[in-house]
Structure formats: C-alpha cells, structure tokens
Amino acid sequence: MASIYEEIGVRPVLNAMGNRTLLGGGTPSASVRAVMDESEEYYVDLGALTDKVGERISEMLGVGGALVTSGCAAALAVGAAACMTGKDPEKIERIPDTTGMKNEILIQKQLRVKYDRCMTIPGARLIEVGDAEETRPEQLEEAIGPDTAAIHYLAPGDRNPGALPIEEVIRIGHEHDVPIIVDAAGQVYPTDLMSKYVKMGADLVAYGAKYFGSVNSSGILTGKKEMVEAARMNSFIGFEDTALRTFSRPMKVDRQEIIAVYAALREWLTMNHEDRFAAYDVRLTGLHGALSGVSDIELFMHPEGQPADGLGIRIDPAKSGKTADDVVSELRDGNPSIWVRHAEGDDFFVVRMPQLKEGGESVIADRLKEIL
C-alpha cells in the first residue's frame, strides 16, 4: 500500500537532523497524541482554554504568566507588541502603525538571526547595537532613548564571545525601565532553562514547543504576569474573545495544539531524561559499530563533553575523494531522503537520534557505506 507521501508525490525524510521546522518539527509521543485525540470529543471555549492552560504552565514552570502561541516566532511577535502597547486598547488596535509609540527594539549585532525579524510584524524597528566584534555596556546604555520599547536577547548568548551576557542586559534595561525579551527557542534542557531567564529578571521569554515534544506550530511566551496579559490582548485570542481588532489574528492556535503544549510540557518536566539519553546511547553505539569498518572517516560522539544525542562523522576529502558537503547532498538525494545536521563547509556532519525513527540508524549506516 502506497504511503500518503507517495500518493502526493513527495519523498519521505528520515530526520537525523533534529527539531527542524522545515521537516515538520517533531513527533509528539503516543501519550501526547492520545490527549490531543481526546480533545476532539468536544469543542471548547478557546479563550477559557488558553487562560487555564496558561495558568497550569505558569504553575509548572514557577513563572508569573504564560501564553500558548503558534510557535516561538509568534511568541516574539506578540511579546514585541506587548512592549509597545501595554494594555492600551487604542495602541493595540493601531498596530502595525506604531507612529508616536515607543517602537524601537535594541538588539546586539552579534546576536542577530533571521528569526528576530518577526518582531517587526507588529511595527517594531530593530536597532543594532555594537559591532561584529563586541558590544560594550556603554554602547547599550547610549542606544536607549525615548523610543526604546524593549531590548532583545538571543539565549544562551554565547554565539559570539563579544556579546554582553544576559545579566548585564537585564541590569541595564531595568535601570532605564526597559523590558527584556528573550528568544530562548530551543533552550528547554536542562529543564531549569525553561524558568531560568524569567527568574533572572527577563520580562518575556519565548520558546518553541516542538523542542519539548509538542507539535511544530506551537510555542509559549512566559514572563511577568502583566506583560503576558498584554501579549494575550495582542494575540489571536484577544481578537476572538474581545472586541479588540488585534494584528495577530492570522497566528491562530487550535484546541488540539493548546492541549499538545500542555501535555508535552507536563511529560517533559516529569520524564527521566537520563533514561532518554541512555536510549540514545544504545542506538549511537550500534551506529558507531556499523560504521567502524568504513575507512576515511572519523567517528565521535556529539556534542562532546555533554550527554550525547548524535554521532559525528568527519570526512577526509583527500582520502575519500568526497567532502562532507558531497556526502550530505547524496544522503538527501536518496529515497527516503536522509537529513543530517551539517553546516555548509564543515568537514563533518552529525546523525542525531531524537527525531530519528527506530531502525533509521541502520538505513543511514547502509546508505553511508554505499556512498563511501
């Protein structure tokens, strides 16, 4: 019997890359899917569901407030809106026209990623601070002006050694009564990272819920209660269950997704993560053994120095006649297509276990033997 992908005409993918939006995010566990199916039995007031789930998430994480969104990007968008409008209905309905509002969000040049542009959807302007080498405290302070609505921070902040640490950003921002928005998209393990930034003083923190086992199109915004309430007013549910005409009506979240976030987070916070990594280790050991006879490659556990969830494979072009880029391309060109974690130009790639279906490592081992 043909699969649905064959019927449609697209190649199925073995996901050895990890939580990637382009591949569909992740696969909720059987228990999370069961709760999602259970939610189909009845319809529900989405406003009440949003608020109750937000309360439960706040309790689980020990933070002031929480809002389920249609992904981390949506969380950043409504968070940025909250910083510009507060709870002022007139300002909320004027977005994305932010004329006359505080509408500038400061962002360190070293911490720029393409996802931060989503904060411009509600009309914010991103103002870069510092240069490619570093950002100094006085540069951030001098950039704060009458139009500064917030300061953005990309967690964990160590992408560039010249970036200001989050503690310094929070200190400077709060000395000037400027809120801090943290993009902590995948910072979900160790689990204390899911409350760390709020407890440090950040006003709003955005996460992608796919990273802790929910569906691809879901996320959460956590933070101070008043700020999260302002974000809710700006959100799609603020459009639906109040008279407000908010900008984010297209960022809709269904009841199954809201339930998935709640169930997945509950599971993530209570599971034995040591057992999770032990299961990865068994599969990685098997993959390592299957590839140990392949010449011209170097194998190593990844990430090094931490609990490993992937096997790194380094290619020697001088010996194999192929670069890592070549091998990654050939893996993708097969059927099923195999996607691994790789940065173009690097001499290695990583086969990761978290989203790779059971037995997928054997398929990958066989394919690599053919290619190499």
Description:
The longest helix is centred in the last third of the chain and has 19 residues, at 273-291. 41% of the residues lie in helices and 16% in strands. It has helices at 4-8, 30-39, 46-61, 72-85, 89-94, 137-143, 166-175, 193-200, 225-234, 236-241, 255-270, 273-291, 317-320, 324-333, 360-371; strands at 13-16, 65-69, 104-108, 125-129, 148-154, 180-183, 204-208, 219-223, 297-302, 310-315, 337-340, 348-352. The strands form 3 sheets. The chain has a 7-stranded mixed sheet, with helices on both faces. By secondary structure, it is an alpha/beta fold.
Uncertain stretches: none
- Tertiary shape: globular
Taken together, the total number of domains comes to 2
Q: H/E series, N to C?
A: HEHHEHHEEHEHEHEEHHHHEEHHEEH
- State the CATH superfamily name of the largest domain: Type I PLP-dependent aspartate aminotransferase-like (Major domain)
| Tally of helical runs | 15
Overall pLDDT? 96
Number of strands: 12
CATH class of the largest domain: Alpha Beta
Q: Please state the CA-atom Rg, rounded to the nearest Å.
A: 22 Å
User: Structural class, please?
Assistant: alpha/beta
Look up the CATH topology of the largest domain. Aspartate Aminotransferase, domain 2
* Strand fraction: 15-25%
CATH architecture of the largest domain: 3-Layer(aba) Sandwich
Overall helicity: 40-55%
Query: N- to C-terminal separation?
Result: 32 Å
